[in-house]
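S2.1 Query sequence (NitT/TauT family transport system substrate-binding protein)
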Amino acid sequence: MKGRVSMLKKWLAFPLLAIFLTLGACSQDEGKEGSGNETEEGLEPLEERATVVIAEDGAASGAGFYIANEMGYFEDYNIEVEFATFSNSDEMLPAIAAGEVDVAGGISTASFFNSIAQGIDVRMIADKGHNTPGSSYFTFVIREDLQDEIVDYEDFKGRTIAVSSRNAVDDYIFGEMLSHAGLTRDDVEFVLMSDFGNMLAAMGNQSIDAALQIEPLITQGESQDLHVRFKDATDYAPEAQIAMVLGSPKFLTEERDVAQRFMAAYLKGVRDYNDAFIKETGDLDRVIEIMTEYTALKDPELWKKVGVTGLNPNGRMFVEDIKNQYEVYKENGAIKGEVDFDQAVDTSLVEEVLDLIGEYE
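Output structure tokens follow.
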């Protein structure tokens, strides 16, 4: 567990949500050296060491956090990070709002927006996951034996399609695909299948025809001749915001100097990731080594084959798409209350940091 802190849960009381979070800690590599890089003018290391608590569950979209930690970018600014895990967002979001957690990863769901509408104050501050054109990590697959029958999106008509959620980003992307195909939900058989692994088995026994699947199971299913990748999600949802970096209002205001340095380090980690996976000019082996340590995908060779999570090296989100997703959930009757996006989306930290470290090209 290099440079990581595992945290159990012990946290009490928020109206309507009883949750438990433990901020206990076993710190490692206390003497971890920084990267040796010079910091930017205006972002010198903090005079006093600061600890930033990140709620992250080992998702691949947390690459920026993991790489920045292992490459010493946080250390460069005299920041130590601690990783906390939660079983679900109902536990995580109040902890962020209360400032017990500084930063977290979140995905677009009706439940997420409902929490904000009901007074849980968290801010969406940076990109943490979108599909990359040509190699989406989250896209449709079809059964291997149906390749001659399903050749375009309209061929999904009458087919059985598995999706992992309702009124969440999966369901939103499913709807965008149907609109692109000129189909309605009545034209297909929707199967709710929350476990992506079960989709592989359903492909194998031919109980479904297609699925909205995620890496590395897309690549795994292809290797087992269960399914094939079907086109690309960016055909119909080119700017779908799948995950966001969330920030605590307390962290963003009372600890702005720490937040700026944290974001600078995070973006440096994301840029290493893009150099390695997208531009193919970076240290791919080192980045894969870090990803195998922090995530469930432990095979370095498989990392060279999968469609990786898209991460914006400038941190910018597809804000309009976030709003579109909210409106879709609202039209479905899944949203209770209103979300003030002028407050809930805060891009100011990213823009401040980009002024200091420059844009990635």
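Residues 138-235 form a domain with the D-Maltodextrin-Binding Protein; domain 2 fold (CATH 3.40.190.10). The chain has two domains: 50-132+241-357, 138-235.
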